[in-house]
């Protein structure tokens, strides 16, 4: 039984050019390139509350996955079996793709609560998990533990979601919690150093929390009722996000900060861009609808 969980030679006879293309398509849905674009696009063009919660869940899940990987230090399947060369020298247990697929797609289905969405999201989640086995980027144990960890995260998130004390707490407490937990984990990381995406997501969570609170007080935007406005808001937001990445590369070269500090700063700026800067620009372009006027918002801030 133990051997079955780790031996991936059984996948070799199943491989065909067509299935390899399909597996690569599904596995792309679990990489940061997709996640860091899909969630902001949903935030601007669909439902900001749903996708803000997804942004937090993905950030927390990515941090947990990196932590458990370096605790277990379980190797991936042999190089000669793998068809995915993007994993580098990272460990295999638990599978980040499986964990984040469960968190992203099943939480989205939980929020929408429609049968069609449950079916579609479950199939995508299954496809991502199977793609990691097909490509031999993970063994069965990696995928099962990753999916289980994602499921536990969802159960906890569903219980925390409706707790008034958490929703109504001052943003300072949220930021302080992220700093203490994220910063403490970086200082006590089980390996020599954490992967660079850990400080990135710590900064992203802080920036998103701050931007969310400020945006709610100044704009409190909502998606426009017209579909074309939503689509255009999502497209312009995506283009803005691409431009931001290019600008950040230039800034990185100029500042020359140590990698972990730069990634934290980069994440902070990305979080503020997604939840505050881009919504403000899209409201100005009349592609998003602001529920607050600047005068009312200013009066509330002064009177607070």
Summarize the structure in words.
The protein has 304 residues and is an all-alpha fold. The chain folds into two domains: 162 residues, no CATH class; 136 residues, no CATH class. 73% of the residues lie in helices and 2% in strands. The protein contains 13 helices and two strands; from the N terminus they run H-H-H-H-H-H-H-H-H-H-E-H-H-E-H. A two-stranded antiparallel ribbon has the order 1-2. The longest helix has 29 residues. The relative contact order is 0.13. About 2% of the residues have low confidence.
Itemize the secondary structure elements and their pairings:
Layout: H1 2-6, H2 17-28, H3 32-45, H4 48-72, H5 96-112, H6 115-134, H7 140-161, H8 164-167, H9 171-187, H10 197-218, E1 221-223, H11 227-255, H12 259-284, E2 288-290, H13 294-303
Antiparallel strand pairs: 1-2
């Amino acid at each position: 039984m133990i051997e079955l969980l780790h031996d991936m030679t059984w996948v070799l006879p199943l491989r065909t050019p067509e299935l390899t293309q399909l597996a690569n398509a599904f596995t792309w849905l679990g990489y940061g390139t997709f996640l860091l674009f899909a969630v902001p696009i949903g935030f601007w063009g669909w439902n900001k509350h749903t996708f803000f919660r997804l942004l937090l869940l993905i950030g927390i899940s990515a941090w947990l996955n990196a932590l458990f990987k370096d605790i277990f230090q379980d190797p991936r399947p042999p190089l000669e079996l793998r068809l995915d060369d993007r994993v580098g020298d990272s460990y295999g247990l638990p599978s980040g793709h499986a964990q984040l697929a469960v968190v992203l797609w099943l939480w989205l289905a939980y929020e929408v609560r429609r049968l069609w969405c449950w079916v579609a999201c479950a199939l995508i989640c299954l496809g991502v998990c199977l793609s990691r086995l097909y490509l031999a980027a993970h063994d069965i144990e990696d995928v099962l533990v990753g999916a289980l960890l994602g499921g536990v995260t969802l159960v906890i998130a569903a219980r925390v979601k409706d707790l008034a004390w958490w929703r109504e707490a001052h943003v300072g407490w949220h930021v302080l919690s992220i700093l203490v937990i994220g910063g403490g984990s970086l200082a006590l990381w089980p390996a020599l150093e954490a992967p660079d995406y850990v400080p990135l997501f710590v900064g992203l969570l802080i920036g998103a929390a701050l931007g969310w609170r400020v945006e709610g007080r100044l704009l409190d935007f909502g998606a426009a009722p017209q579909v074309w406005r939503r689509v255009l808001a999502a497209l312009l937001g995506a283009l803005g996000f691409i431009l931001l990445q290019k600008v950040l590369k230039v800034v990185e070269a100029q500042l020359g900060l140590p990698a972990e500090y730069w990634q934290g700063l980069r994440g902070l700026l990305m979080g503020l861009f997604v939840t505050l800067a881009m919504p403000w620009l899209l409201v100005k372009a009349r592609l998003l609808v602001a529920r607050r006027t600047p005068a009312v918002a200013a009066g509330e801030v002064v009177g607070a």
